[in-house]
Amino acid sequence: MSRSTTLPSDELIAFRELQAHLDPLFRRIQANTRRAPQTVVVVPSLTLDREVLSKIAGAHHYEERLLCMLMLLRLPRTQVVYLSSQPLDPAIIDYYLHLMPGIPSGHARQRLTLLHCHDSSPLPLTRKILDRPRLIERIRGAIADRDWAYMRCFNATDLERSLAIRLGIPLYGCDPARSHLGTKSGSREVFRAAGVDLPDGFERLNEEAEVVEALTELKRRNPELRRAAVKLDEGFSGEGNAVFSYDGSPEGGGLAAWVRRELPERLRFEAAGETWERFSDQYRQMGGIVEEFIEGDEKRSPSAQCRIDPRGQIEMISTHDQVLGGPTGQVFLGCTFPADGEYRLEIQAAALRVAEVLQRGAVLGRFGVDFVSARRGDTWRHYAIEINLRKGGTTHPFMMLEFLTDGSYDLDTGLYRTAAGQPRYYHASDNLRSPRYVGLTPNDLIEVAVQHQLHFHGASQQGVVFHLIGALSEFGKLGVLCVAEDRQGAESLYRDTVEILDRESRAGRPKPESAPHVPRHFLEL
User: Fold this and answer.
1) Same domain for 260 and 388?
2) Looking at the structure, do residues 366 and 513 belong to the same domain, yes or no?
């Protein structure tokens, strides 16, 4: 879905002309952010491969991830137009608007326009919008001044480019013509150009015979290799990954024949219910890679976020340690910020080298770089494994932290500090999930939060923020961000939150009980 196709030359010219407005617009807004009369059109479409996306429970609710962009309404002259496939529960919107510091929620609500497609089909949101010309006219009508407007999205494909052209506003995101740099194959090529370590492997593969050849050659190069990863080029959240085990492989000749025979049975998929037939068909269509599966007695999965702004300047945003799950630990579940102090500056340095290559490739906007890190003695060795030219699971937690605290990232230490200079840590998850949560409505969640002080407290700049609230009732799935003054406090707050939700869902309804074990100053506000 993210691959770029050939557009008519007049559309490409129109898009380039629109994009040329981003730099001067960005400079005007930066010059006086609070007074700039901007309109931000948020299109949180997950315009990704439908087969891969279908493996994620409640995927259509991931449109709610970008509700963190509503926090832009704390800027008194900013308008936000937010699109979604289905109407969003008013309780969810109220929840976000009441989080904003310094702005009455009613004032913010007047500057928010919510538009919906009333379409629950699995088509990408952007496709649904393009199929509704009257909706496009309503979006255009909600933009006060197109000279001060731009579009933001989860990821940028041909569909988002076409919508930007139809709306007549620039797209603050990577040109789809450069989307190949964010595939698994393109990532490996960028890593080599940046001079950062990456797993031994092969890219730009399509056919089963190429996979067999790659798996065979990896084992020949490294006879001690135990496993290899086979990944779809455009997999999402680890769901397009699989692992091949060499256990029992022949030591002499016949390795290629053994791999060919064993491949359909030995490949273990991260996505539940995946089959070899379906996976191999997708592999032929979109391509993929084969690479060494990094082993280690102690392994971590750090990531880094960077941004290249319309002026071409690189900004380091954050580092995280990802929390992964799934059969072989490749599915994104959540993250902790910042990454471990033993190596976060090393991750930061590697990510900045990658950013320099992407800058030369005219990439624009936020992107993430994922690593696998293995401890070798007293040191860590880091392997870059993927570039995400889009917003991801580590994007919205950090954006919420910034919006709620008005702090900044300290490049010298890799820490985030509030405006008062105090460090902040967090534990965040997109997959707080339990069958017992099914049936809990947004209002039920808010009632539980009120009863147990599960809020973000502006005075202490610590606490709990929920997201993916719309997925709770149907899928028993929820997102949560727990912010505290140190790592232990954030993890403790997360455990307390899970304990409360589990207890209240067992009870069937919220009950007044004693407050959770959170720092005393939370309870004294």
Assistant:
1) no
2) yes
CA–CA separation, 314 and 301 (whole Å): 23
Tokens linked to 340: 């471990």
Q: Is 367 helix (H, G, I), strand (E, B) or coil?
A: strand
Alpha carbons 509 and 429: distance in angstroms, whole number: 24
- Which tens digits make up the pLDDT trace of 83-129? 999 999 999 999 999 998 888 999 999 999 999 999 999 899 999 99
Which of 292, 315, 331 finishes a domain?
292
Same domain for 516 and 479: yes
Question: Which residues is 302 bridged to in the sheet?
Answer: 321
Distance of CA 281 to the CA centre of its chain: 26
What is the bridge-based pairing of β-strands 149-153 and 39-43? parallel
- Which are the contacts of 22, defined by CB distance < 8 A and separation ≥ 6? 150, 170, 172, 310, 364
pLDDT tens digits for 173-200? 999 999 999 999 999 999 999 999 999 9
Q: What is the CA radius of gyration of the chain?
A: 23
- β-strands 462-467, 477-484 pairing: antiparallel
Buried b (16+ CB within 10 A) or exposed e, 334-369: bbbbbbbeebbbbbbebbbbbbebbeebebbbbbbb
Q: How far apart are CA 338 and CA 322, in angstroms?
A: 10
This prediction has a pTM of: 0.88
Residue 101 and residue 51 share a domain: yes
What is the number of structural domains in the chain?
3
Question: Please, what is the Cα angle at 327 between 323 and 332, to 5 degrees?
Answer: 30
Tens digits of per-residue pLDDT, 315-349? 999 999 988 776 666 667 889 999 999 999 999 99
Same domain, 283 and 336: no
173, 191, 219 - which closes a domain: 173
| Under 8 Å between Cβ of 124 and 159 | yes
Cα–Cα separations (whole angstroms), residue 232 to 144, 190, 215, 218: 42, 17, 15, 18
Query: Residue 225's Cα: distance from chain center in Å?
Result: 31
Which structural domain range is residue 285 located in? 200-292
